[in-house]
Amino acid sequence: MAVLIGITGGSGSGKSTLAEALISVLPAGAAVLVREDSYYKDAASLPAFDAATHDFDDVAARDHELLVRDLSELKAGR
After folding, report:
1. What tens-digit pLDDT sequence spans the chain (78 residues)?
2. What is the pLDDT of residue 13?
3. Is 15 helix (H, G, I), strand (E, B) or coil?
């Protein structure tokens, strides 16, 4: 049975530290760490992209459709 544990919080709040600590106490291969940061869209390819003003916190900045597909694949054991 697959179990999904979601950890939320503000930037720098310790989400990754907590997730890594949880994984460290589980048997090897028993858990997969999926980081939402891995799902940012390629904004740099946008014609008017400016890293100084781009809102990386905007929900639209990440590819949640791909994230849902990947989580579904993990749940299915693939």
Report:
1. 677 889 988 888 999 999 999 999 999 888 899 998 899 888 877 788 888 887 777 888 889 999 999 999 988 888
2. 92
3. helix
Q: What is the DSSP letter of 27?
A: P
Read off φ and ψ for residue 53, nearest 5 degrees.
-115, -10
Give residue 39's identity as a one-letter amino acid code.
Y
The CA-atom distances, in angstroms, between 58 and each of 16, 22, 53 are: 20, 28, 12
Among residues 31, 36, 39, 38, which one has the least CA distance to residue 15?
36
- Structure-token pair, residue 78: 């693939």
Structure tokens at 69: 């597909």
Residue 55's contacts (CB-CB under 8 Å, 6 or more residues apart) are 61
Give 15: exposed, middle or buried? Use CB within 10 Å, 0-12, 13-18, 19+: middle
